[in-house]
Give the backbone structure.
Amino acid sequence: MSLATRTRPITIAILAMGGEGGGVLSDWLVALGEANAWFAQSTSVPGVAQRTGATIYYVEMFPRDLEHPHRYPVLSTMPTPGEVDVVVASELMEAGRAIQRGLVTPQRTVLISSTSRSYAMPERTAMADGRIDSAQIIDAAKAASLRFVRGDFAKIADDTRSVISAVLFGAIAAAAVLPFSREQFEAAIAQGGKGVEASLRAFGEGFRVAAASERPTVDIQIGMRPVDPAEAQLAADKAMAASNPQGLVGSKLQTQAERIAHQFPTAAAWMLVNGIKRCAQYQDVAYADQYLDRVARVATVDDGRDDFALTTAAAQHVAVAMTYEDTIRVAFHKTRERRFDRIEGEVRIGDGQMLEVRDYLHPQVEEIADTLPTGLGRWVLQSRAMNALIHKVTHKGLKLNTSSVTGYSMLYITARLRPLRRRSLRFSIEQQRIDSWLDTVVRGCATGGAFAEQVVLLQSLVRGYGSTHANGVANYQAILAVIDQVASGTNPAGELQRLRTAALADESGTALRAALTSLPA
Amino acid sequence: MAERSFATEVQKLRIGAGQEFHGEGILAVTKALLQSGVSYVGGYQGAPISHLMDVLGDAQEILEELGIYFENSASEATAGAMLGASVHYPMRGAITFKSTVGFNVASDALANLSSGGVNGGAMVIIGEDYGEGSSIMQERTHAFAMKSQMWLLDPRPNLTAIVDMVQKGFELSEASNTPVILELRLRSCHLHGSFIAKDNIGPAMTIQQALEHPQRDLSRIVLPPMNFAHEQEKVTQRWPAAVKYITEHALNEFVADDGQDIGIILQGGLFNNVNRALELLNQSDIYGNSRVPLYIMNVTYPVIDEEVVRFCQGKRAVLLVEEGQPDYIEQNIQAVLRRAGATAVLHGKDMLPVAGEYTPAAVTKGILAFLRAYAPERLDEDSLPALALPNDDPRSPLAPRIDPALVQGRPPGFCTGCPERPIFAALTLAQREVGEHYVAADIGCHLFSINAPFNIGATTMGYGLGSASAAAFNSKSAGKRAIAVMGDGGFWHNGLTSGVGNAVFNENDQVLLVVDNDYSAATGGQDVLSSQAENPTRSTKHPIEAAVRGVGVTWAKTVTNTYDVAQMKEVFIDALTTDVKGPKVIIAQSECMLNKQRREKPAMQQAIKAGHRATQDRFGVDPETCTGDHSCIRISGCPSLTIAENPDPMRDDPIAQVISSCVGCGLCGENAHAAALCPSFYQAKLITNPTWWDRAKLSVRNWYIARLQRGIERRLVGIEPA
């Protein structure tokens, strides 16, 4: 619409979380308008809403009548559903919120959103995977908007060491929804005078990615983002596991890899390859053999249902169960070179900077006893004096400087206790538990493959450390205690899945108790 | 020192007559006060007018130049009472606070002020915290205006109208010897716009002059028999004087009142939304040239009977657009029309929502219903805005376009690194040991505890009333005691007397947690008595523990590092189990992280630039040892502690991850310790500009560690591919 005939203002709603710079973005928009002879009015909802909660900023712009420069338009302080030209969202769920509130409409609204996620509290506090499906929001956004301009703007902000507001400002410029040139946008940033250089860099990247996001070729070829090299590598590895697992392991595991290629269904190969590496790294090559023996027990009774879903699940969960979290494993991972490299990357260590890493450890009496040879471990657990002594040393936890000679040595020595593990109390308990669990799986095949698979998945309840681990084991055992009752029901697989979901519903075990009492007799 | 600084913006307050002022609503109001010749200003912070207090604080130099006294009142009651300075003297005074909560607190003082009346103009500038974004109960200030007889000004939400109303408001107050209320709706406070300025003027009489020439007039004091005279004076003298001023100065506006037989009466503050609705219905334009007659009540109390009757004369029907409930204005106008024998039908809450915010969408639907009933010929039914369609029409903007399960609520919560989070983590862990307790919450950031992940706190009865609201829970025979929460802001506002003093006097056995974060944090980081900052114009550093001991508390403990979750937890357990009688007061003291960062970040950057050694902490989670059960998040909820795709192909659940917004407060690690969670957390200490000693230590360590690491990797050769 040309300026002369424009009768309605340009309306822009910005949805962000408090503290994300939505205010800065609306300030830039106002500066952009005012510098170019437009009236610009911005409003926001102040107050506690700005403490990390979802919040909305609203801007209206209208060209100044140059013949009557002081003739003020009447601008609204709130967006009206169906009447918003541009919606900017700093995060994908906020784009969803804008759609839900009717601010995004297919007839009118250009939606500009970051595809990044800032997870909501229920997604983060879930005991398992509580994330909502981003793809569904993206589909809804495409359908609900006139155009959907998008990109991982949060990552750009991080990469350019700037803020997301600058990236989004670039995306608005690229979307060509406002009657201002790129130079005019950049001038608005420069006028702000704070961190201009970083903001302009972020602006430029936001502009580039947003401009590319709508090109149809991008959508058809690879969905919403360019190919991630890590993802491509993963796909290649999975293909290799199926055709030539030997290529994915070192010389010491060639026999085991061959066994995977010949004795197991191809569908399970990827998990099996990971499993032998995991077990060999955790203990030794013999342990990897033992792992394959265990999965083989399940594979032989697998009827091939669902492309060997049972064997694949067993390949995954047997490995995780066999490499249970003990102090030796923790010490091993904390002392590896790649860990130090990773942390240096995370903190973005620069030239001339130094890094110290301190670990928060709090070994419990049980965990220490676990690592000791069976007899000694039992004695420690039963000895009141030893209990008191260890408690005294560890109950407040240790903050260990792992980057110091002493701290590193302590962890290093702990990791070197690996050969003792086979004789430890915990090892014997875990091996017994795994074998009896696999007995139940094999027995479960009589009830049905789907049921047996659910028995395998019960293992996912056992994880973590300290009280988390104890709770998990308690839940796992509570379910195994009623396994025969479940197996004799009308929908054993479904019922078992329901119990497992209940165990993951809350920490207090309320949902599981309710589910167990409501079991059909 | 407040969270947001207006140090540069306040320079705009100096511009003179004829220049165009660009800025936020609160700055415009400040400028209007300077143009009105006020003698003194006070108030209490609270959204949406917190920033008005901050602007005034930052403008102290300009205020002093003009001879204006400004203070940060201890409460809204203090601010209200401060207007007593205008009772005998021709001094203009203004106070500001958040309403309706501020009015609840101030109403004793303001009722007394209104009874005796004022000599100099007295103005209460309120931020009406109503509608989306509000954090308080949804009520109307209108009731306070009516009960005490204060005039309620509700100007159109544009800076010119607001600034003009400030100046006219003082004149009205003086002409009618009545205090006035200037109502700013939530968004108007943060409205960016422009207006043509006037020169600043100094007060007609300064505080100094008043002090040096004491005056009193017995007839203004509220005591029999004067109080009875005041009531008569209100209706026989002040009301008619106000009506005269309002009509003579045309404070209310008539638009397009050209003999049509329908019309709309509206509150001035709703003008922009009403005009937007009329535009969408093709009855007005962007410049507000409505073709439907409008009577815009920029003064919503008193209702000017004569103007209402005149507007309704010859009209079949009139729609009243009045936001909020009860419908005081509608009732008032119905009575006026009935008494005048007017025939116009008055519609209002029968066509518009009875309760809730009058958004452009709500107003559009209401006006559409009105026009359909009385003037359907004015509507082009084929070109109505989409929102006029029923919600289940697929073309409606509100037609469901996304699965509601995909959009979860995102209420406000504790900031990254907030020192209050560990307090509630500790209380969670303490309750795991000694059982659940009744917790009375209070107003302030700490109220975020009521939401996930803590879910702590049962009621909130008002600012500083946390302790008082647990007063009834005092039983000698009960095996548990109540826990009450209070912030430092609420404590100094009234909690010291209403809560602590009350609990001491009544031998209440409660545990009172006072969250002392050095600021009135929720309102934007203003200083309070116990703030640790050196404030050049205010007296700070008065410890809360000394205050509670001063009123008789014997069990008081100050925890100076709330991030020490284990210690915090022990103090809670101690307080909940001790044999000591009377209130147990825990003062949990750590600086608001938002303000701390604002102070420390630039200082550190400067130090780094100057080549000084500096350390920055960040936390992290080892993905190999995290098993993805998120217990750590469930006792934290920190925005920087989130989840990420599990890099382990054998694990399905997302791992915990600390993102780059982490400020290194250390809570993750302390929680992991206190709750014995998991060994995955680490602290990464980044040292910039290391000393020679740092470097020497580093080279030894690096050599040693690298040697051992080579050994570890050697074993793994042959397991991983080469």
